[in-house]
Amino acid sequence: DSHVQYERVGADVTMKCGSMDWDAAVTWTANGTDIDESHLNGSYLILKNVDLTQSGQYSCYEGSSWHLKYQTYLSVGTPPKEPALMCRSNNYPKGFYCSWHLPTPTYIPNFFNISVIHGTREIVCEKDVFPKNRCHIRYLQLFSTVKYKVTLTVTNALGKNSTTVTFDEFAIVKPDPPESVVAKPVPNNPRRLEVSWQNPSSWPDPESFPLKFFLRYRPLILDQWQHVELSDGTSHTITDAYAGKEYIIQVAAKDNDIGTWSDWSVAVHATPWTEEPKHLTTEAQVTETTSASTSSFMPPPTTKICDKGAVVGSGAVAVCWTAGLVLAAYGVLFI
Amino acid sequence: MAAADSPSAALRRHDLCSRGIRLAGKMRSDVVDLLDTYVERQGLDASASVAVVEGVPAAAVERWDEQTGTQRLLENLAAYRAFRALLAQMLEEQREQLGEADAALGRALAAVLLQVSAFAYHLEELLRLESRGPPSEEGAGPPPAPHLGLFERKLRGLGVLRELAQWAVRSARDLRQLAKPSPGSSSAPGPAESP
Question: Which single residue of A67, A119, A221, A233 has CA 20 to 30 Å from B90?
Answer without folding.
Answer: A119
